[in-house]
Design goal:
Layout (H helix, E strand, L loop, with lengths): L1 H21 E6 L5 E9 L4 E5 L5 E7 L2 E16 L8 H10 L7 E14 L2 E12 L2 E13 L5 E10 L9 E2 L4 E17 L4
Antiparallel strand pairs: 1-4, 1-11, 2-3, 2-11, 4-5, 5-6, 6-7, 7-8, 8-9, 9-11, 10-11
Amino acid sequence: MNSYLNKIVLITLVLIMPVTQAQEIYTIASNRQIDMRLNGSSTLHDWEMDAKKSSGEARFTFDANDANIVKSLESLTFNLNVLDLKSDNKGLDKNAYKALKSDTYDKIYYKLSSSQIASEKGGYLLKTKGKLTVAGVTKDIVMNLHLVVNASNSISCKGEYQLNMTDYNIEPPSFMMGLMKTGEELTLGFDVIYSKQEKS
C-alpha cells in the first residue's frame, strides 16, 4: 500500500514540477526604458506629463518547454510617484500635483486582478481587469496590455487607460487665473520593461 502511495506522490510531483519551474518573477528595471505618461486636454491646448521612474513586479508563467512562450500573467503591479511626473510648464505641474492631492497621496498604483492572454503580431495581447488607485481612490478598471518577450528575456509591457478625474474625486485644475481649464478626461499611459528577478 505504501509503495502504491509513493508512486502516486512521485507521479504527481513530476507532473506539477514543470509548471512550478515555468513561473518567474519579474520587476521593472530602473536601468531600462521607463515611460509613464499622463495626458489631458484644456481650453487652450493638450498637455502631457512624463515620468522616467516607476517600480513594480509581475509574475509570468511560461511554456515548460519554451521559455520564450508566455502562457499567462499571474500578477502585475506598478507604482508611480506623482512628483516624478513632469511637463514643460512648472505652473501646470504645481496645479496638477495639487489636484492629485500629492501631499497626502503621493503614488498612483495599479494591481492586476485577472487577465486573458492571446497572441498578436510580435507578442501578446492581454485583456485585464485590475484596480487603479489615484488620489487615494481605488476603482476597478478594464485595460488592454501588450507584451513582447525580448531577446534578453526581459518583457516589454505597454498599455493605457482613460479615466475621468471626477470618478477619483479630483477637481480638474485651472491655470492662468482660470483662462486655461483642463478637461475631465485623463489618459494614463505606460511603456516599461520587466526583467527577471535575480535569485539570491
